[in-house]
């Protein structure tokens, strides 16, 4: 034992951290799978691969990967449109794209995606996830579209309150949410057991003791759900919608993983994430998940932060969490059949609520109203249209806003009635603003000295520089001092 500890000095800390991460991951793996419309075991498969494959690869020391609530809506739509058999092919394509991006050293560029777009994406996912899972807590079938889910909630609740079975199911889901919220207020030693796991266990006990007639998780066995993509799945490669789904999965999974890496790095003083290698690790894990027909994976901030807080010191903690998931799936699969589905839906309602960035939106509105507007429009577009197009709309707005700000320029004229007229240009002078700049400058008096100060500019493109020099050379009337031009020496 002493020899083992000498070779692995942090084994004790990593062991206990892995137990905590396992307890956090277990209910979420099962809940995400059920909400995605696939067997519960596939969520465990993705969690196992996240631990045993991605966990061993270089990139990040503390990130823990697995199925994420943020992809639930997109996975559900893909399974509904293309079938569960094609899901593996889609995830395989995501993995190969991520590996290619990592090799091409694109991983770190995902940190350049506008925060408002990412927050808007998560907000839209959260809203659709909450709406969809509220139907599940009541044992009702949810409409297919995001807008339909939200619009149909009043009628769904009216139906639930008139049906005793639906009301029982709804109460069980609501109880799970209450347990998670109140659990966070208990002493720290109690919170060693994650609130989500406590909610599942308590809901399962209540269901069994009182014999409640609610839906429970359907169990097929670990080997029964693993399947390689077949010929029918590859036949979908000729469908443009499949390629759009692969791109959407890749964009969202990669952005979530890279933003999670940045967040986790702020929680510890250990080795920093190597983003390109982490992208390759995520891609390898998704490629393996795709070959097994499992759910896509991302780095998950909840599990990753739990790993850091629990004292994880090396990669061993995240690898061991995958071992515990494998042992549970192999030794206790029948335990899944006891879990009530409304409790899992309640957990995902809470997870969806956590995806909505209330605090960030308030801060953006106070400091950057344009960014707040992009967040709201992105989220609304995801609800009204779909995930992929909603993100594209958000990205387009972000680019348009950046282009607008990049071309913003301010001209301030100081004319005291006598002496020289001083004109100050500040901001970014580009050809997009050139007509407005020239109109203002040409209105200045030609029979008095003019000083044009460009030192307040952040950027001056070639078209503006040439036009301003030309204006300065011809503006002054005969017998008047030429325009004095204070140049921007660092302009592009």
From TrEMBL:
Q: What species was this sequence derived from?
A: Streptomyces thermocoprophilus
What is the membrane topology here? Multi-pass membrane protein
Q: Which domain of life is it from?
A: Bacteria
Kindly provide the name given to this protein in its UniProt entry: SulP family inorganic anion transporter
Q: Please state every residue range assigned to the domain named SLC26A/SulP transporter.
A: 11-378
Q: Which UniProt keywords apply?
A: Membrane, Transmembrane, Transmembrane helix
Q: Where in the cell is it found?
A: Membrane
Q: Name one Pfam family in it.
A: Sulfate_transp
